[in-house]
Every structure is written in structure tokens, then in C-alpha cells.
Amino acid sequence: MLCSRPCSSGCSQGIHLSRRQACSSLSRRQGRASFLGFTQSKELSRVIAFGKKGKKKGGGGGGSAATTEAPADEPVVASSGDGELDVTNAIKACKDKMSKAIANVQGNFDSVRTGRANPAMLDNIEVEYYGSMAPLNTVASISVPEASTLVVKPFDTSALGDIEKAILASDLGITPNNDGQQIRLSIPDMTEERRKELTKTVGKYAEEGKVAIRNVRRDAMKVAQRCEKDGLISKDRLKEAEDEVQKITDGSIKKLEDA
After folding, report:
1. If DSSP codes are grouped into helix, strand and coil, which group holds residue 55?
2. Fewer CB in a 10 Å sphere around the end CB: N or C, the chain?
3. Which DSSP state fits 188?
4. What is the pLDDT of residues 2-51, one digit of tens each?
């Protein structure tokens, strides 16, 4: 039946319900709409801060071999409501992330095979050990008895075969010598072909590092720009923050190029 007269909630709209049913239904809808409005309001107050992987771009230089860029719709740091604090934190995080990007690239440089033995050459090799993958240097000791020789001695000799298999499957390009107790790797002299290949690999790692640094720069700038847009900092403070982030970026790019 129709409501005979409008109630305080305005439910008499020609709906074939009793007055009590119509009012109850409308009350539930209003409550749900109120909750959704509150939730959306909270979301609008959050500030997108920085981070990736993205990959793995901005000014001065360029993602590391393992870039750390957070998704655009997933803020790393929520706004504190204090623009100066948010900008300060963003600049600090910018320094930390760029330093990590440089360290990551340096680690990649160390893993490249040149003409000399270096335990870091095996850092990217993982071994299947008791059903799970583990870094080689956690299941074996690695020593350099000679300038062009690496010796891999497993803590558990039963893993020797899996270690040999992992080395063969890697892009190291060296055939392991397994004597039943340990593995010897003889590093061959670098050929012209290998030298060209090495140059390309190092260049690739360097460019990935620059991309990672640019991504961090971009996200730090976003924090400062958002704070200025929301009226939390002045335009002069925004300019100061942008200049500081750019200075950090330029310095990080230089360190990367000198690595």
C-alpha cells in the first residue's frame, strides 16, 4: 500500500510499501551513503608520497636493476597535515632511496665477469637447496686462492651437484670443475668480444640506475608540489624543495657515473 502522508524522512514517493517499511529502507540507504561519503573524504586527504619498480624519469640523469617505485594509487606516506614535515621527510627519503639505487648498481657492476676473480661474480646465482632457492653464498664459502680462480666449497657436500648445475645455468659463461668436494672456477682472459659485451652490460646497469634515481626525484617533487597545492607550504618553499631535490639528484647521478 502507499504511504498516506509524507513522513519526516520524505519516504512517501508512491512506493508500494507500508510507511514503516519505506522509512526503514530509506534510513538504511541514507546511513550507507553517509558512510561512503566519509570514506571518500578520508581518501581525498591522503598524500601520494614516493617510492617504484618500477622501473626500473625527471632531470639530471635516470631505475636500478631492481627499482623501487610504489604504485601511483598506493601512497607510501600519508599526509601529516604539516607541509614542512612532509617535505622534509620526502627529501630525506629521496636521499636514502638514491643511495640504495647507487649501491644496487655498484653490486651489479661487481657481479660482471672481467679477467679477475671476484666472489661478487656469484652474487646473483641461486641454488635449489632442499626444495627452495637460496643464494649461493649462503650454502657455500667462496674464496679466491689465485687472481684468476674462484673456489666454491659447500657447507653440505650433498649440495655440490645442485651448485654445479646452478653455475652452468647462469650467464657467467664459465665451466665449473667439480672434484667431489669443491668446485673450482677458472676465469678466462677477456677477449675482444667479451670486452664489447661487458661494455654493453655495464652501460645497461648504469642506465637502469639513472632511471631509478629519476623516479625517486619525480616522486619527491610530487610530495612538495602537492603540499604547495594544498596550501601547506608557500611557493618559495616549494622552489627551495625542488632545488634541493635536484641537487641531490645531480650528485647521485655523478656518483653513479664515477662508480
Report:
1. coil
2. N
3. P
4. 444 444 444 444 444 444 444 444 444 444 444 334 333 333 333 333 33
